Amino acid sequence: MLFKTHPEKFWNLIASKYAASPIADRSAYETKIQKIKSYLNKENNVLDIGCATGTQCGDIADEINQITGIDISSKLLAIAKQRMAERKLNNVEFIQATVFDERFQPGSFDVVMAFYVLHFFEDIDAVFKRIHQLLKPGGVFISETACLGENNIVMKKVLRFAGQLGFLPLINLLTTEQLEQALDKAGFTLLDKTRFSHQPDTGYTLIVRKSK
Fold this sequence. Notes:
By secondary structure, the chain is α/β, with parallel strands linked by helices. The protein is 38% helix and 22% strand. A 7-stranded mixed beta sheet has the order 3-2-1-4-5-7-6, with helices on both faces. The longest helix has 14 residues, at 7-20.
């Protein structure tokens, strides 16, 4: 099966296993959520790109007006909807879509989030341009990314080869420096850069504001 051209099939295949996996560093995660909440208010409309099972969506829902979680995996979204129903959260919606979906209009969101999903986009400049477009003036973008371009040479070769063969979805071997440069180019100003966990392969959480 070639996941490079049909990444949604990969995520549908591993959805149950992914959903059952515990958060690796619970303390770091909770600290990160509190940091995110400091940038939110009750009037905010939020978009979560690559929301998976909706964990972040649910954990910030009480702080905002509305949150929309999007993902390409129908099975992950089914789990997300079930979990939100169990938590009785009425201001969370889930849509099977990408960030480029035309249903999302420019200036629709106060905050956009993307956790461990940006490295699955081939053209990161196009993604940041789209996020900039979707944000209201002064809007905030919060991301945390697996910067696999900072791994050792052998690991990078393995990931690249597996992706080329189609055994994995496309993986962009990004670095933190590349992300920061691309964000600056797209018209964002860095507000905060924090690594909440010291576990291997944990990326920086970058919080930026739409500045132009």
